[in-house]
């Protein structure tokens, strides 16, 4: 997730010096609502769920999300292509 960052110019820090101030605006937080497993004919759902390290109610963490996908890919039970559908994000600040 990207956040806008702006650097307002400030050149009055003294001779031979430049003052740099970073401004960061926090974006919208997303939370995991529920995790649906559909079309699984390869194994029991609990085998898939144990590899998913994000949990309902948690703030969405892209590192955990990507790690979960990697763990699922390593099972070699599922095929990954494009997304079947876009995730249903529940935005709460």
Walk me through the topology.
Blueprint: E1 5-6, E2 23-24, E3 30-31, H1 45-49, H2 62-75, E4 90-91
Antiparallel strand pairs: 1-2, 3-4
Please give a structural write-up.
This protein is of the alpha+beta class. It contains 2 helices and 4 strands, in the order E-E-E-H-H-E. Strands 1-2 form a two-stranded antiparallel ribbon. A two-stranded antiparallel sheet has the order 3-4. The longest helix is centred in the last third of the chain and has 14 residues. The protein is elongated and about 70 Å long. The C terminus is likely disordered.
In short:
The protein has helices spanning 45-49, 62-75; strands at 5-6, 23-24, 30-31, 90-91. The protein is α+β, with helices and mostly antiparallel strands.
Distance between the termini: 15 Å
Percent of residues in helices: 10-25%
Task: Please trace the helix and strand order, writing H or E for each element.
Answer: EEEHHE
Widest sheet: strand ordering: 1-2
Q: What's the total count of β strands? A: 4
Count of DSSP H/I helices: 2
